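Much of our argument rests on the idea that a fold can be written as discrete symbols. This step matters because it turns folding into a mapping between discrete strings. The record that follows shows the chain in one-letter code together with its fold in token form.
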Amino acid sequence: MTKLKAVIMDGDGSTITHDGILPDNLRELIVANPQVKWIMATGRSLDLLRRLPIIDYLSTDVPHIVDGGSRLVNQNGESIADFFISHDEIDLFFNQLDLKKVDFLYYYLDEKRSYIYSQQIEHWSQRPQFSNAQATSDIEIYRAWAKENQPTKIFIRVLQDIELKGLSWHQNEQNIDLTAHGVNKGSTCTKLLTMLNLHPSEVAFVFNDRNDLPLVEHPKLNEVVKIKVGDYLPDTYAEFHVATPYDVANVLQQLI
């Protein structure tokens, strides 16, 4: 097996426990192996990634995949590549949105531009993670913001399941990520590996959820070593399968 040069990691439920803990053995492995590129591939926006305890241990000389693949960014916020949702896609989304089923909408662009909509706006805008966002309970104002400052991803928290026809989206329980057509973790990972001059066989991917499948199943990434965490994807093949984030470091240690 080819020696690993990079480890691409999903966050929640993969390398971070569901109660927000970075396992000690994984942190120690990362610190002990600075020659490996430790890269995040998350559905979170950069501001929410910074709330994970792994942020201080990621490689600083490479960009990270955030917003479900719709952005490549450095930790300092410098944007390397952005894949914006088009105006037509924005209109298609808002025209079919059933507001009765929506808790809130949120997207983040940079330190000065983030936007939240909710009918319970006083509740959500006071949360620390959204406290700096422009906030509204008027959906037409929010649509205008999205047209003026195009998002790369819109995060939708739903009260009931919804269907978004003609759009690219992934759902995990009550959380939906809307991205531009054809944009996902897999499409952006191929660009990142080309940028870093890495062959897929030199890379491992740690994952646990459905929004990871575009990377797991991408035809150009079939030589990436897959490490599946948990039992949420029983029918998805991976070279390694572990029970929890606490078990990931043991597999990576062998591969490194």
